[in-house]
UniProtKB/TrEMBL annotation:
Mn(2+) binds at residues 70, 352, 394, 424. One of its GO terms (molecular function) is 3-deoxy-7-phosphoheptulonate synthase activity. It catalyses: D-erythrose 4-phosphate + phosphoenolpyruvate + H2O = 7-phospho-2-dehydro-3-deoxy-D-arabino-heptonate + phosphate. Pathway: Metabolic intermediate biosynthesis; chorismate biosynthesis; chorismate from D-erythrose 4-phosphate and phosphoenolpyruvate: step 1/7. It comes from the Bacteria. It is an enzyme of class 2 (transferase). Keywords: Amino-acid biosynthesis, Aromatic amino acid biosynthesis, Cadmium, Cobalt, Manganese, Transferase. Binds 1 divalent cation per subunit. The enzyme is active with manganese, cobalt or cadmium ions. Gene3D superfamilies: Aldolase class I (3.20.20.70). Phosphoenolpyruvate binds at residues 109, 289, 320. This is Phospho-2-dehydro-3-deoxyheptonate aldolase.
Amino acid sequence: MNQIPWTLDSWRSKPIKQQPNYDSQDELNEVLGQIKSLPPLVFVGEIEALKNNMAQAGRGECFILQGGDCAERFQDCNELSITAKLKILLQMSVVLCYGAKKPIVRIGRIAGQYAKPRSNPTEVVDGKEVPVYRGDIINSFEAHGDARKPDPSRILQAFYRSTATLNYIRALTKGGFADLHHPQNWDLDFVNKAPKRQEYEQIVSSIQDAITFMESLGAKEDKLHSVEFYTSHEGLLLPMEEALTQYVEEYNGWYNLGAHMLWIGDRTRQLDGAHIEYFRGIRNPVGLKVGPSADPREIIQIVQALNPSNEEGKVTLITRYGEGKVQEHLPKMIDAITESKLNVLWSADPMHGNASKTDDGVKTRNFDSILSEVNDSFEVHSGKPSNLAGIHFELTGEDVTECIGGTAGIGVKDLDQKYETYCDPRLNYSQSLEMAFLISKMLGK
Ligand code: PEP
Ligand code: MN
């Protein structure tokens, strides 16, 4: 790789993918200027704390749960939706903690997950070819008139919604909402129908006992009452990410202060491309999505570019091969990374390799395929010197009907009942919690 000196805007000289074409650069610059003048979303100390947690996860001392919407929608920046997402992530983390017997680091795909990479620049809606929806930060999901035109003012709207979302998350996680750890606050209806009902009930009652015991020791005020929660999004829309990036004197480095962690998508991870160029200059923990097309030699070079000092906790390889493909691809990737002595964390995203379409053309994913990819990922790592340090899900705390399967029994015919996602299908509340029970067992092995 031909490296140029890194500057905040050196990515601008590299080929770039998945960006909108704005009509007016002046309007775009005006919005970016406003974002630069506003206070950032996160504090550098939090970013470093997360990186430290991630280094621990890489050593097997804790486990990472990353999850949230595929694409956050502006209309979901409201109390109910944020509360539901936080609730399911906290509850899953308690269940995983029970199985793993180690702390869980929680990272939401939230407070900024507004930009989407797409497979095609256009799509056909109601018989008409229109530009594709690229996330609420760029254009509207509505397909009429000019609604799909990229609009720079949406960047500012997204920024304000990210601050409102994060503000509310901070209130909930510091103000006692963490009491939702308590299984008595969980919706466990699906457990009654589960074939593994007894097993789940046993887990729930053990968690209940453990929490009651800790509360009796007086742990409630500090540890149980407030929890750490980090934010993340795909760093796709680089002008926006640049505007969120600052040099922090105290830490002697550049940080993206718009999220604690960011990841690079499978479609924008070209070694010589703009995204890798931007990301190699920032100190946040960075995820890299790794799909079936990833060549281990290229991934090695990318990891070296992103993390030249081989710092622990800095790079997470988020593999997303798809059911039945993990055995073929993951061992080679692990061997290549191990031989190069690169410090990475391994996480599994069992969602993005498992998309399917119903006969009616509705995008869905099957609970069993998702579970199977997680299981295969654990198995492959267990036969290698590496370890699976985390999982990455698209989920929501609401009762949507987007993925099929799970004990709640959502079938193809149920999908239109509450299908809300603008992009990829998410696990709903009970599917997510059930997934956590099943993964908890894998972690306990
Ligand atoms: C995503 O995480 O929403 C996504 C688009 O993933 P990937 O880059 O792995 O396809
Ligand atoms: Mn997605």
